[in-house]
Amino acid sequence: MISSLTSNSYLTFLIGNDKFAVPVEHVQEVIEVDQVTKLPHAPAYMLGIINLRGKILPLIDTRQKLGLPSAEVTHSNRILVLDIKDADNKQLLIGATVDIAREVVAIGPQDVQDPAHIQYNNTTSLSGIVNHQGDITMILNVPTLFSIGEITSFDLPVN
């Protein structure tokens, strides 16, 4: 389980050529793509549901949630199993697709820049930007990007 690392630890991953990160406190594990069951009448960002050792999880297309063009999900993609909590302390495990899961890195708060100064349509999905020797990494705001209220509007189980 990844969550035993410090709060300044982030799991980095790629979507296309863009590098993103999520705090490890939200990451339960990284798994390979297996069988995905499609859901009828689901929004475009909801790829379906997956079975994770007997637990059914919604599978979210991270590209779509970020407003990026969709791409076919293949066995080379990875699924981040994310633990999300909302303001009411509701909890939901989801799967979020990424192209390539990279590594866990330590990022100090002093290295994170506020994304508010960037003219970006969806700045609420970013909690920060890190520029390390020209390598730009966007840190995702997991509870905002993967909103429990939005995902559970399809009657998926919430713990």
From TrEMBL:
SMART domains: CheW (SM00260). Gene3D superfamilies: CheA-289, Domain 4, SH3 Domains. Residues 7-151 form the CheW-like domain. InterPro entries: CheW, CheW-like_dom_sf, CheW-lke_dom. PANTHER family: CHEMOTAXIS PROTEIN CHEW, CHEMOTAXIS SENSOR HISTIDINE KINASE-RELATED. This is Chemotaxis protein CheW.
